[in-house]
Specification:
The chain is globular, with a radius of gyration of 17 Å. With 203 residues, it is of the alpha+beta class. It has 8 helices and 6 strands. Helix content is 52%, strand content 13%. The chain has a 6-stranded mixed sheet. Helix 2 crosses helix 8, helix 3 packs antiparallel against helix 6 and helix 5 crosses helix 6.
């Protein structure tokens, strides 16, 4: 009996995070805007913007980048139709994770973000290891601008601001996507995500 109960709860969890039906967006009270510290995928001058609240430790955020993002990049980001603006979140106020997300923001602006992002997607727990500290030291050693960016902001005001605006809009759960100030919660396959884009932007 216990086995079936666990299985049932697991299926409910998957269903809650994986949206296969027509999504019902929620209009937000407060407008979401792009900030200089946000991580931007795609052309910064693209005519349409999708905001994404995400966490590297969120399984369905990682599913999005592993399964949905490649086609999204090929068909929308690389063609200049769209940019994806990611606002990384950490609700636990963990210094190691905050430092990693601060590094992500700096590397995306002043360096090559792809490899760092790939590492975080594959193994987010690496941020709690000495190996990650060594990696950041190497990155900063070879790029003084990134080093200055990381070391000059140790109060993590930007990252805490992401959490504050997420909560101010009464959002719950990641990933949450915002388009035209309407929020879509959960993981979407590429085909379902494409339908949302067509509805919101007529791309």
């Amino acid at each position: 009996m216990k086995r079936y109960l666990v299985l049932g709860l697991s299926l409910l969890l998957v269903a809650a995070c994986h949206n296969s039906k027509a999504p019902k967006p929620v209009t937000l009270k407060n407008t979401v805007t792009e900030k200089p510290e946000d991580v931007v995928f795609g052309n910064k001058d693209a005519r349409a913007t999708v905001f994404m609240y995400a966490s590297y430790q969120c399984t369905y955020c990682r599913y999005f980048f592993a399964r949905t993002y490649p086609e999204l990049k090929k068909n929308y980001l690389d063609t200049g139709k769209l940019k994806l603006v990611v606002k990384w979140l950490d609700f636990g106020e963990r210094p190691k994770m905050l430092n990693a997300l601060q590094a992500a923001s700096c590397i995306s602006r002043y360096g090559i973000y792809d490899k760092f992002h790939e590492l975080m997607i594959v193994n987010p727990a690496v941020v709690f290891t000495p190996k990650f500290d060594d990696l950041l030291d190497t990155i900063m050693e070879h790029n003084p601008v990134i080093a200055e960016c990381i070391l000059d902001n140790d109060n993590y005001a930007y990252l805490r601001g992401n959490v504050s605006e997420f909560r101010a809009n009464k959002l719950t759960g990641t990933p949450t996507f915002v388009m035209n100030n309407r929020a879509y919660k959960g993981y979407y396959s590429y085909e379902n995500f494409k339908k949302i884009l067509e509805k919101e932007f007529q791309l």
